[in-house]
């Protein structure tokens, strides 16, 4: 099987130095593989480590043990050991992440927030902005909002900005953390359409979907994340 | 990824009497990369910036700079004249206090024009036009071109210092607490301006700050210093979201979420 991304023996625990060095094991022996064009939904009870796994895959959590192998520009890169510059290159070209909440940059207009990842990949400014505007419109964000910074937007509007920013570049691997959590029915349909289109274009998707109806429509299979036994 | 670092240092050590200011510090900065050095007062971060930029000598270790032609120079071996020239051309330095980076008795336009003339610009009209364009880029009314910086607000002075520094298109800019002395509202605007300029010009920046939120906004990579040592380093969001060292955990836990 040729995976777009797969993990081998992935483990993570947190050592809390401020709480007397308490060690909290969260994940162990995770073997997850996702092929191009496939959507895998992470399943498991709250607290099982689904979000931790997503953050390990994106690299904002450091890997405790094991490997994360991602196909990046015809190379296989191990994100667990890649240096910061290589992780940045993988994020620029290969790996996208739609988090639950938009980290707002003061004063930057919505259109620029969505266009930026396309521009750093070399798309000319005008083309990037045109694609950003089209995607925002598809997500029912009216043009009069495109020039405003999203700081004052509602939760649902901010989530749609985040979705546009994540889907616009067409990353080969895309991580989606609760992509429809604060959306109404119409916008949920748009997101289902975006996920289907990305899959047809060969994107490998890993998602957390609390909305089981959306999950069952987009996911090809579930990947169970097991809670670690609590140490005495 | 552009292959070779603009600046690399290894094994830097320096003591002030019994106090270790730097202990075995190594760092590289690559083209187009924004690297933040965070830590509290006395951690050695400003000393590190001064040693890397050739303003202070380490007791041990080397600092190497790669020029645009690819030749590597030992910064400590460069003569004073060569170092001054480097600071006027391929490097820039933004001081915490704008008075240390500006000439207060020279007009705003003159402050920018002076840097241009130092790299050979001679045509008065071109220099003035470029100075006006840079005032616009740092959001200062071009009508203030003949105004004296002493009459500017702190935030405007800092923006003028940035214009003066960037006008010669340096490839590497050192910044020492650039938002340090400013009101919070002014800080946000300045940070955002720095972020946009750095991205537009593809600058490499080495920024010293104690402001974790500023580091998260600006930096690709982070080094955490404590008592002269680098205790943790890596991708900015990795260091801040999953801090490993006890001191970094304390630093991150101490930030108030807005």
TrEMBL record, chain A:
InterPro entries: AAA+_ATPase, ABC_transporter-like_ATP-bd, ABC_transporter-like_CS, CP_lyase_PhnL, P-loop_NTPase. Transmembrane segments: none annotated. The keyword Nucleotide-binding applies. Keywords: ATP-binding, Nucleotide-binding. Residues 5-232 form the ABC transporter domain. GO terms for molecular function: ATP binding; ATP hydrolysis activity. Pfam families: ABC_tran. Belongs to the ABC transporter superfamily. This is Alpha-D-ribose 1-methylphosphonate 5-triphosphate synthase subunit PhnL. It comes from Belnapia rosea.
TrEMBL record, chain B:
SUPFAM superfamilies: P-loop containing nucleoside triphosphate hydrolases. InterPro entries: AAA+_ATPase, ABC_transporter-like_ATP-bd, ABC_transporter-like_CS, P-loop_NTPase, PhnK. One of its GO terms (molecular function) is ATP binding. The keyword Secreted does not apply. Residues 7-252 form the ABC transporter domain. GO terms for biological process: organic phosphonate catabolic process. Keywords: ATP-binding, Nucleotide-binding. Pfam families: ABC_tran. PANTHER family: PHOSPHONATES UTILIZATION ATP-BINDING PROTEIN PHNK-RELATED. This is Putative phosphonate transport system ATP-binding protein. The lineage of its organism: Bacteria, Pseudomonadati, Pseudomonadota, Alphaproteobacteria, Acetobacterales.
């Amino acid at each position: 099987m040729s995976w777009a991304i797969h993990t081998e023996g992935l483990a993570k625990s947190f050592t809390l130095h401020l709480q007397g060095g308490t060690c909290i094991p969260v994940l162990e022996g995770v073997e997850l593989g996702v092929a191009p064009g496939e959507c895998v939904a992470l399943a498991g009870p709250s607290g099982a480590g689904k979000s931790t796994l997503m953050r390990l895959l994106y690299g904002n959590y450091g890997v405790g043990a094991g490997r994360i192998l991602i196909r990046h520009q015809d190379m296989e890169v191990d994100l667990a050991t890649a240096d910061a510059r290589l992780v940045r290159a993988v994020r620029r070209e290969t790996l996208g992440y739609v988090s639950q909440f938009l980290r707002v940059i003061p004063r930057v207009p919505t259109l620029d927030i969505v266009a930026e990842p396309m521009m750093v990949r070399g798309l000319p400014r005008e083309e990037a902005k045109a694609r950003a505007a089209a995607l925002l419109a598809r997500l029912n964000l009216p043009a009069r909002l495109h020039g405003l910074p999203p700081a004052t937007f509602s939760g649902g509007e901010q989530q749609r900005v985040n979705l546009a920013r994540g889907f616009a570049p067409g990353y080969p691997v895309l991580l989606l953390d609760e992509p429809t959590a604060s959306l109404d029915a119409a916008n949920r349909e748009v997101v289902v359409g975006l996920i289907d289109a990305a899959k047809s274009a060969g994107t490998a998707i890993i998602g957390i979907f609390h909305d089981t109806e959306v999950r069952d429509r987009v996911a090809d299979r579930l990947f169970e994340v097991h809670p670690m036994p609590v140490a005495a | 990824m552009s292959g070779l670092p603009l600046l690399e240092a290894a094994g830097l050590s320096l003591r002030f009497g019994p106090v270790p200011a730097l202990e075995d510090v190594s760092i590289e900065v690559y083209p187009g990369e924004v690297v933040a050095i965070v830590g509290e007062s006395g951690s050695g971060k400003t000393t590190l910036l001064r040693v890397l930029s050739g303003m202070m000598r380490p007791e041990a270790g080397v600092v190497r700079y790669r020029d645009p032609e690819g030749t590597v120079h030992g910064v400590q071996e460069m003569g004073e004249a060569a170092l001054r020239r480097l600071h006027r051309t391929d490097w820039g330095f933004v001081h915490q206090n704008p008075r240390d980076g500006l000439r207060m008795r020279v007009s705003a336009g003159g402050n920018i024009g002076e840097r241009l003339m130092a790299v050979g610009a001679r045509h008065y009209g071109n220099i003035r036009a470029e100075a006006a364009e840079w005032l616009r880029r740092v959001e200062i009314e071009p009508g203030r071109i003949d105004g004296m910086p002493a009459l500017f607000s702190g935030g405007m002075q800092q923006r003028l210092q940035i214009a003066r520094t960037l006008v010669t298109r340096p490839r590497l800019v050192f910044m020492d607490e650039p938002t340090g002395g400013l009101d919070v509202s002014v800080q946000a605007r300045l940070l955002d301006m720095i972020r946009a300029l750095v991205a537009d010009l593809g600058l490499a920046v080495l920024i010293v700050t104690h402001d974790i939120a500023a580091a998260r906004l600006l930096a690709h990579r982070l080094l955490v210093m404590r008592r002269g040592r680098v205790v943790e380093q890596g991708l900015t969001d990795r260091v801040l979201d999953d801090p490993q060292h006890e001191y970094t955990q304390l630093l991150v836990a101490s930030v108030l979420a807005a």
